[in-house]
Amino acid sequence: MPVTLIKENEKLSIEIDGSTFYYRRIRDVDFANIRRKHTKRGEVDNMAVGLEVLENYVVGWDGVTDPDGNEVPFSRELIADLPSVIQVQLLNRINADTTGVNVTKKLKTTPTP
Questions:
Q1: CA-CA distance, 72 to 99, in Å (whole number)?
Q2: 104 within some domain
């Protein structure tokens, strides 16, 4: 399977617990810049790094609901309100697709208009 360049307009998807999340892969240089931004005196704030990655690389969702069962439109500001286990799964997917681990199990890619 050929190597696929990372493009700004790509849109990959993953289904987690009946909800679909749309994301794009992160370039190494962008991840390094985010990590550097959240490093003080040699200590990395991994929670801040993860949240910034999610806020910038998760680009949509379907089937996410509020506690009353009402579907909630996607908003970057609401990403922090996702359960931590879902945030971790999303971060793992973004990382795995970026490093090529899932290259043989590639999810559908939908170009953004």
A1: 31
A2: no
Cα–Cα–Cα angle for 106, 111, 113, nearest 5°?
165
Take residue 19 and report the two structure tokens written for it. Answer: 């909800």
| Total domains, the chain | 1
Q: 21 in helix, strand or coil?
A: strand
Give the C-alpha separation, 54 to 95, whole Å.
11
In degrees and rounded to multiples of 5, residue 94 shows phi and psi of: -60, -45
pTM of the full structure: 0.81
Cα–Cα dist 111/97, whole Å: 16
Judge whether 36 and 17 are in contact, CB under 8 Å: no
Residue ranges making up the domain that contains 23: 12-99
Q: Report pLDDT digits (tens) over 78-107.
A: 999 999 999 999 999 988 776 554 443 444
